[in-house]
Amino acid sequence: MLDTLHYKDFAPHVKTKFRVQIDPEWAMEVELINAEDRSCSTRQESFVLTFRAPSNAPPIQQLFQMSHQSLGSGIMFLVPISKDENGLTYEAVFNRNREV
């Protein structure tokens, strides 16, 4: 379900937590720190979600099973983009045609 949501669904949930299942025995909590609408046409939807994870999060890009208390659960492709003293930052980019 998370992969079918839109920017307007995620934007109100900035600064909330998501649970990410790394493998069957390890899960972590990440915070949605930014939701940015990058749509440049009425026919194409484009937005970026940025998540902050703990410093020990795996710096790998892959599909992750994620869940959120209000938004539900689903699979999202996360890519690590930076690491600093605050943790590892992941990004999810969405580009798709808008439903007509």
What can you tell me about this protein's structure?
The protein is mainly β and 100 residues long. It has one domain (2-97). Helices cover 4% and strands 60% of the residues. The protein is built from one helix and six strands; from the N terminus they run H-E-E-E-E-E-E. The protein has one helix at 7-10; strands at 17-23, 26-37, 44-53, 62-68, 72-84, 87-97. Strands 1-2-3-6-5-4 form a six-stranded antiparallel β-barrel. A hairpin with a 2-residue loop joins strand 1 and strand 2 (26-37). The radius of gyration is 13 Å and the shape is globular. The two termini are 20 Å apart. The mean pLDDT is 93.
Quick overview of this protein structure:
With 100 residues, this protein is mainly beta.
End-to-end Cα distance: 20 Å
Largest sheet: 6 strands, antiparallel, barrel
Which series of helices and strands comes N to C?
HEEEEEE
**Helical coverage, percent range:** under 10%
On the 0-100 scale, what is the average pLDDT?
93
Give the C-alpha Rg: 13 Å
Q: Uncertain spans, ≥5 residues at pLDDT below 50? A: none
What is the number of helices?
A: 1
Shape: globular
* Number of β-strand runs: 6
Tally of individual domains: 1
* Coarse structural class: mainly beta
Strand order of the largest sheet: 1-2-3-6-5-4
Our estimate of the beta-strand percent is over 45%
How do the helices and strands line up, and which of them pair or pack?
Elements: H1 7-10, E1 17-23, E2 26-37, E3 44-53, E4 62-68, E5 72-84, E6 87-97
Antiparallel strand pairs: 1-2, 1-4, 2-3, 3-6, 4-5, 5-6
